[in-house]
Amino acid sequence: MKKNTRRFAVVAGAAAAAFGLTVAPASAVPSTVWTVTPTGAYTATNVGNIVLTATIPMTCTTSSASGTMNNATGNPATVANINAINFGTSASPCTSVLGSVTTVAVTPWTVVAQDYTAATGVTKGYIGNVKANVTAGACKFTVTGKASATYTNTGTNAGILAVSSVATGDLIVSSSPAPSNCGTVVTTATKPIFKGNYRIKAANGATPKIVGTNP
Which segments in the chain show pLDDT lower than 70? Predict the structure, then answer.
């Protein structure tokens, strides 16, 4: 009886080992290596209007940003920081049906790369760590979250960072601080949308390129 028990244990152990071999996890996909040329400081200027919609559209004809770009490894990976971003000027303020709009960004924001298509030279990702305090007329609220974006290396859209946060819930209206003097127009249930194009220039005047490769 003991001999049979030992034999069963050996057989069971061998089966378990074989099963373990068959279900062993596949090798992890190598992290994407992101190469930015050139790295370092950059500036960004809007191409066309920048629109933030939180129930009502708020339009900026002037917007600019600056920060630094860098090589990175990972997926997703941060390939740039947005250290400053401005919406409108005193001479050309952003507008809405509620009146002039003031948007004060709380930076840094990040530019995060997720996917690169070599055939088109387009990197898909998002603007992360977004936080901005918005005042439209008497209404005040804070927007946080992320905004989907693409960056194009070549062609007519070379150097364009296209922001389009169309996914519901990417951006939210913060409950802390809660919206003030907004009534039912802007509430914590409002899902803001941030859309617009920025042309990126490196400090030396070149159009930066972002390339993702897998080792």
Answer: 1-30, 167-169
Determine if residue 22 is left, alpha or beta; phi over 0 gives left, psi from -120 to 50 gives alpha, anything else beta.
Answer: alpha
Confidence (pLDDT) at 166:
74
Domains in the chain: boundaries = 33-213
Concatenate the DSSP letters of all residues of 88-110 into one string: --SSS-EEETTEEEEEEE-S-EE
Determine contact, residues 152/121, Cβ cutoff 8 Å: yes
Return phi, psi of residue 121, to 5°.
70, 30
| Sheet containing strand 209-213, strands side by side | 72-73, 33-37, 209-213
| Cβ-count burial 121-133 (b if 16+ within 10 Å, e if not) | bbbebbbbbbebe
Tell me the C-alpha to C-alpha distance, in Å, between residue 101 and each of 41, 95, 136, 148, 180: 29, 5, 4, 23, 14
pLDDT reported for residue 14: 42
Residue 86 has what pLDDT? 97
Sequence-ordered strand ranges (E) for the chain: 33-37, 40-54, 56-60, 63-69, 72-73, 77-87, 94-96, 99-105, 109-117, 122-136, 139-152, 160-164, 171-173, 193-202, 209-213
